[in-house]
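User: Teach me something about this protein's shape.
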Amino acid sequence: MASGKGLASRLNRRITFQARGNPTDTRLNTRRAGQWTDHASVAAEVQDVLPSRAERLDDSINIGRRPARIRIRYRTDITGDMRIIYGPRVMQIVSGPVEIGVREGLELMAEEFSSGSETA
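Assistant: First, the predicted structure itself:
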């Protein structure tokens, strides 16, 4: 890492990964639409990403996207179809996760949607 500090020293936030489950209704023996369930709570580095000037001008209709770059320690059980809970924010993973270094960490991009388009 260029700053001389390792990834672990920058993991100063707590996030929760959630996965969509497939619970079964035992009374009717049918499957319901999957509910989000907690998968893992981990330390993370969360950096909000500011849009470029061109993106601000082109995006005349603001749908309330708030992208963030998230880094965590390396794990093999995190997938792109999960979502992230960070305080009051609910974020969907839009890119990654990708490995940082040799199993040092994972980096992913996530976006919060505040216009009601969040995948519930």
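Now, about its shape. Residues 115-120 have pLDDT under 50 and may be disordered. The beta strands are 13-20, 24-25, 30-31, 36-48, 65-73, 83-86, 89-100, 105-113. If you'd like, I can walk through any region in more detail.
User: That's plenty for now, thanks!
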